[in-house]
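Good morning,

Attaching, inline, the backbone tokens for the sequence recovery test we're adding to the shared suite. The designed sequence is right after.
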């Protein structure tokens, strides 16, 4: 690659049927175009690419933040060196706001915005980093790194810690980091004075489960931890006052007797809190699971094809009516209409996106044509 490129491929005029904007992360090292921007059709949910930027290597996971000047898109650079970057998204193509900022951790796979800071989960080094965010939305130098410790029983994947996700808890007081290598979820908080992460406690999950990602129930009382090393979901009670996470049950996300290895990647909870969806790599499916009235009972309803191969990410659009799967190895974003009665997704379309790894949505469409 001779240098970073920003390309625009046209798009809709202001006043059309756009419902908002979508942004897609991808692995440039595997042929991805970097960060792809797309308009979202209000009626059909269809994505129309408007531009892309490969200014940052391997922008595998994205997150949106707000500044006084409007929304800013943040991305990890999932490389051995590890970095983050910020992008202006008001144009047809994302525009980098400066260069990459090191995170003092290897292989960051996930990031989140919390309390004026940018947080990253660094898979390679098994750590979590925190960077202050300036008024213009640009991340500053790392202000703290919290190193996870421990191992798990899997000799190939759990020889040491592997932080895979960082998630602000409802209410904004706590931050949870999910560690695949140590079968644990860490609870911490950002010290507003020092900008460091302060460890608060750890929830130990079943050895060998390999927790990857979690999602909170809309009521804020429960969290659902998706395991990667075994296709299961761990239900946890969450106490937002004390910052305590407690595992209370574990349920399969694939039908009994399913053959071959599967590596679940993402869990999404419905806005109404009555069901959730899980993406399964290997099985190449989306699981539909029903939540009981106590928010702790989980029942597998069915699975449907993900529309491609190796669904690395799964996202619900802001309306709650559609699911979008980022199919990494087939190189597409496939979207599904959700049956309002059953919760079962029905394939509705797809967009070409080589090495796709993530999709996020902006609730408004502040784009200059």
């Amino acid at each position: 690659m001779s240098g970073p490129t920003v390309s625009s491929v046209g798009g809709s005029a202001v006043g059309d049927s756009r419902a908002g904007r979508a942004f897609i992360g991808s692995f440039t090292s595997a042929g991805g175009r970097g960060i792809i921007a797309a308009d979202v059709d209000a009626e059909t949910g269809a994505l129309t690419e408007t531009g892309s930027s490969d200014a940052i290597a391997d922008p595998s996971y994205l997150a949106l933040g707000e500044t006084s000047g409007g929304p800013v898109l943040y991305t990890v650079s999932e490389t051995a060196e590890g970095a983050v970057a910020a992008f202006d998204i008001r144009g047809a193509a994302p525009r980098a706001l400066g260069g990459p900022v090191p995170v003092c951790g290897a292989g960051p796979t996930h990031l989140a915005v919390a309390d004026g800071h940018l947080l990253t989960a660094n898979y390679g080094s098994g750590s979590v980093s925190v960077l202050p965010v300036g008024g213009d939305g640009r991340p500053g130098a790392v202000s703290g790194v919290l190193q996870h410790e421990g191992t798990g029983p899997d000799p190939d994947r759990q020889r040491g810690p592997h932080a895979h996700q960082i998630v602000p808890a409802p209410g904004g007081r706590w931050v949870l980091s999910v560690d695949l290598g140590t079968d644990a979820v860490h609870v911490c908080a950002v010290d507003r004075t020092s900008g460091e992460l302060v460890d608060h406690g750890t929830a130990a999950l079943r050895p060998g489960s390999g927790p990857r990602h979690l999602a909170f129930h809309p009521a804020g009382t429960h969290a659902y931890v998706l395991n990667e090393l075994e296709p299961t979901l761990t239900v946890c009670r969450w106490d937002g006052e004390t910052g305590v996470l407690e595992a209370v049950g574990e349920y399969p996300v694939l039908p009994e007797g399913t053959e071959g290895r599967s590596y679940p990647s993402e869990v999404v909870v419905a806005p109404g809190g009555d069901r959730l969806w899980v993406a399964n790599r290997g099985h190449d499916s989306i699981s539909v699971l029903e939540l009981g009235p106590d928010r702790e009972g989980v029942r597998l309803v069915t699975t449907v094809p993900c529309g491609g191969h190796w669904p690395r990410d799964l996202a619900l659009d802001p309306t709650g009516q559609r699911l979008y799967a980022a199919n990494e190895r087939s190189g597409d974003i496939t979207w599904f209409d959700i049956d309002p009665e059953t919760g079962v997704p029905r394939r509705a379309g797809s967009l070409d996106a080589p090495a796709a790894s993530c999709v996020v949505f902006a609730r408004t469409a502040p784009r200059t044509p």
